[in-house]
């Protein structure tokens, strides 16, 4: 028994005529009759009562018709899904993003969901360079929003935007009254800095080096959230991206711009240039890039 036989059988039943069914199927009536007879022989059942003047199904024939309709409908649905997958790819998007992207990413998600409402999105935070590269090269994520600039044979960075870095000062600290903070101001207070392997650490240390200052590093952290809470507890001062704190109320932490030089960092979209990405993934990348250009 094959699908063609089932399709022929369904058409005979629905047209209630071998002649009309053969016309719709663009085959000869004898060929259609032979196909139905082979189906009956294969099943060992009589499906059509041929003694009647019109097509009349046996009880077994009725059961087969409804079951065959299910099979054919399921096959048609599967073919449509495979066609969609071929054109669009799986409705899945897996990305990694830095903490500061939380301020704009929900707006982009809305736009992506507008184009593909059924898309399933996984979001992770891979903060170190090695984690990020491994996730991209092992196909664990489709792309990353990061402040690492990566340009290799496999990985490509697309510039998205630039963000300022600002100082976080504890409440009741002598520096809280200053409008701007200098690198010299940060020479002696306990300083909170990202661990080695993080690009923001390199950016901040480069600024201290430029000012010929060695900071008093007493805490090394992975997440800005940890640094914020340490500052909030009065345990030190830190420098974080302005986007991390610019949309929240901060009653116990003071946000200060840097005076000596504008500490900035670039944010990129990094993807594997050698990997096939479905049209849906490409569309999401285009949406993100367009969002920041505007």
Automatic annotation (TrEMBL):
UniProtKB keywords:
DNA-binding, Transcription, Transcription regulation
Q: What's one GO-annotated cellular component?
A: cytosol
Q: Which domain of life is it from?
A: Bacteria
Q: Which GO terms describe its molecular function?
A: DNA binding; DNA-binding transcription factor activity
Entry's Pfam families? HTH_1, LysR_substrate
HTH lysR-type domain location is 1-58
Q: Which InterPro entries match?
A: HTH-type_LysR_regulators, LysR_HTH_N, LysR_subst-bd, WH-like_DNA-bd_sf, WH_DNA-bd_sf
The UniProt record lists the keyword Transcription? yes
The text of the family note is: Belongs to the LysR transcriptional regulatory family.
Do you know which PANTHER family this protein is assigned to? HTH-TYPE TRANSCRIPTIONAL REGULATOR YBHD
Q: This protein is called what?
A: LysR family transcriptional regulator
**Organism (species):** Oceanobacillus sojae
